[in-house]
Hints:
- It is a single chain.
- The protein is an alpha+beta fold.
- It has a domain at 76-206: Protein Transport Mog1p, Chain A (3-Layer(aba) Sandwich), CATH 3.40.1000.
- Helices cover 29% and strands 27% of the residues.
- It has 5 helices and 10 strands, in the order αααββββαβββββαβ.
- Strands 2, 3, 4, 5, 6, 7, 8 and 9 form an 8-stranded antiparallel β-sheet that branches. The protein has a two-stranded antiparallel ribbon with strand order 1-10.
- Keywords: Membrane, Transmembrane, Transmembrane helix.
- It comes from Nocardioides pocheonensis.
- This is DUF4245 domain-containing protein.
Amino acid sequence: xxxxxxxxxxxxxxxxxxxxxxxxxxxxxxxxxxxxxxxxxxxxxxxxxxxxxxxxxxxxxxxxxxxxxxxxxxxxxxxxxxxxxxxxxxxxxxxxxxxxxxxxxxxxxxxxxxxxxxxxxxxxxxxxxxxxxxxxxxxxxxxxxxxxxxxxxxxxxxxxxxxxxxxxxxxxxxxxxxxxxxxxxxxxxxxxxxxxxxxxxxxxxxxxxxxxxx
Length: 214
């Protein structure tokens, strides 16, 4: 009997080594990467733009390219053509002053003849000869300035010339040319050269014979 009670007590005794609570740790996975902000993207674009501009500036400073010089043209044949037709006096110098060169030339005959000779002086200033059947006022408006100011008349080569200038520093001499006893055409000489240079060059010009069309 005593032996059975011991067995029963042994069976009913609580287990000392029962299950213990074990905390199971879970590894946290990183969430999705947040998108870049607009400010960050703008900063990257600005930085890239600065790099491009720096490269362009560097290439511009180190480039061997030079500005294309204004070409020199042959003008004597055009003078001969104009004077042969005799529609205009075709004012021109016998030769250019030292260091000067012709950069543009044009002659058109017919019912509306025109003569143009463009020159660069030895100091890089422009002087042009413009001649047509237009009035002196029209030539001044077209080749000097609509707001050109008239100065004192000057005597050059035995002829009276009107003097004109504008706010930009251009100077011109202009006069009408008679044919058959009446005003026929007008000639203007001027450009960015100073007034003394324009007057001196005007005094060197020669002219051909004019035969007005009937």
